[in-house]
């Protein structure tokens, strides 16, 4: 590891220098073996450092986008609360995310993913600065996969309930809500869309991490 | 340039260099690379073939388990159909998966994942027979991630509806169903559990594939 690194940094540059000096002394002109050894030593250690660094930068940008998306989804869901302007003696018509356990799960799932993504930023930066550190990349891949699972789970469950709120289910006597709660429904739908956007980004992140881990 | 630094960091890099220089002085033309450096360079290609093969075998077994789980989930959901023994003049009380769009999605999602997993078996076998074929492993990782996303999406959406069927949602006037449909509900819940089992296996598969791709 160390060997190859130092070879990459400066060892292979030293070879042609010394060699050229000697060969010119003996007057033999061009010597093929040093060139071959330079290529061989130079080839392996930095196979795709630049490419990996590029992947790392894309990773960082996508991560920030995913943070925005999950934060927005959680914030919109958490602040959605609509009271209808009429009420009966016993009951005020009110819709808030915490009337639905699924929406509470949605909020928690997105908040956890957002917090994880913020905490993962330093690791992502490590992957840019040191493209050969495999451990950080592997860690990111594993936790990105788990975050992906959590986020898509929260988003799909919320989507199922949003669908029900929009359309109802006549077979089971579940009425649609969105005629009455005309402010609640679009906000909740927007939150779900934001969360699915984060899911899309996380899928790309997992595949990018795998590509960066790939041994070339 | 940085001669002193490279010499300090790894003195043994200098050995092949000197040797190459000598052989070229003797006028032999292309010199075979020194044994030591050959071994060091040659170490990289077959680092963990046995380990990768082991991962491949675990991958195959887990894949078969996931096929069973998704197939069972889809089959149980597809065959669940309960008619209640009483009916009114206009309406027979009946519950079937296709009364719920979410359950239809669940069935489709699990069936697609099951079909994909069956089609992926040959690739998994290729990864056992030829542990160095990175392309097949990479392909499996990408499609496993997508299958994971699809399956957990289907399972979570169905779980949200199953929860609603069990508990209802008094705030929105959605009554619970499971008191009446005492046969429908346990079967559907079982299907959701089977699907989540498949999700768990797929998460392990993705992480295993990443570990196998890792450059050691």
UniProtKB/TrEMBL annotation, chains A, B:
It is a multi-pass membrane protein. It comes from the Eukaryota. Residues 19-46 are annotated as: Disordered. The keyword rRNA processing does not apply. One of its GO terms (cellular component) is plasma membrane. Its main location: membrane. It is found in: Cell membrane. Residues 53-200 form the Casparian strip membrane protein domain. The chain crosses the membrane at residues 60-80, 100-129, 141-165, 191-213. The keyword Transmembrane helix applies. Keywords: Cell membrane, Membrane, Transmembrane, Transmembrane helix. Belongs to the Casparian strip membrane proteins (CASP) family. Homodimer and heterodimers. This is CASP-like protein. It comes from Ambrosia artemisiifolia. The lineage of its organism: Eukaryota, Viridiplantae, Streptophyta, Embryophyta, Tracheophyta.
């Amino acid at each position: 590891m160390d060997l190859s690194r130092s070879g990459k940094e400066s060892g292979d540059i030293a070879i042609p220098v010394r060699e050229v000096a000697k060969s010119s002394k003996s007057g033999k002109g061009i010597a093929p073996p040093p060139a071959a050894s330079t290529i061989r030593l130079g080839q392996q250690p930095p196979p795709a450092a630049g490419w990996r660094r590029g992947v790392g930068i894309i990773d960082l940008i996508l991560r920030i986008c995913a943070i925005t998306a999950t934060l927005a989804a959680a914030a919109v869901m958490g602040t959605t609360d609509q009271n209808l302007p009429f009420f009966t003696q016993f009951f005020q018509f009110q819709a808030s995310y915490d009337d639905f356990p699924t929406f509470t799960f949605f909020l928690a799932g997105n908040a956890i993913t957002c917090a994880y993504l913020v905490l993962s930023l330093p690791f992502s930066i490590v992957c840019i600065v040191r493209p050969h550190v495999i451990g950080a990349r592997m860690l990111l891949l594993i936790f990105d996969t788990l975050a992906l699972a959590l986020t898509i789970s929260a988003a799909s469950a919320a989507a199922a309930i949003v669908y029900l709120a929009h359309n109802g289910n006549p077979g089971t006597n579940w009425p649609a809500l969105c005629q009455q709660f005309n402010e609640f429904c679009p906000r909740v739908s927007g939150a779900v869309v934001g969360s699915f956007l984060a899911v899309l980004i996380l899928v790309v992140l997992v595949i990018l991490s795998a590509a960066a881990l790939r041994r070339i």
